[in-house]
Design brief:
Helices cover 71% and strands 5% of the residues. It is built from six helices and two strands, in the order αβαααααβ. α4 packs antiparallel against α5 and α5 packs antiparallel against α6.
Length: 188
Amino acid sequence: MKKFSLIITFILMLVGCSSGISSEKQTDSKQASPASTSTDNELSYEEKQKEIVDFINEDMNEIASYETKANKALASVSAENFKNDEELYKVLTSEVIPEYEKALEKAKSLEVSVEELTPIKDKMKKALIIYYDALQLEKEALEKTDKALIEQSNAKGSEYIEAITEYHEEMEKLAEEYGVDYQKSTTN
């Protein structure tokens, strides 16, 4: 089961990020403000910008805090800290999965009024679901001592990396469009 813990250690790519409004970019972006759509016509450029900043600093940071707790717990019993499957299973089921469920619930409950945030929110939710599925497969693999399930879990881990990378790329583009300084965090 140690192979899974190595990929999980690699996956510690958090959704966490920080942002600030760059006044220089704000001025440039205002001149080329994106066209409003029917669902967010009533929001001004500044209101959209504020919602994007809040989405990053509040919503995504809350999700990142759950992921951080889950990943730290997992790291404490995997890779070089791996002792046995029983300990890994215990931490996975009592700490890691419950924290990840909180992250997933937060992502599912997010509501945004800036239309451009909807596909980004959906990408984040998709990435979290993929990683949660990887954790569930790892749990099942430990219960059944099934190496094939470990391989499936590792494949989900790779799929998560692709999905979270897509999220970050889209978030960076939107942040730039609205003059928001977006910096992703890639470590605990």
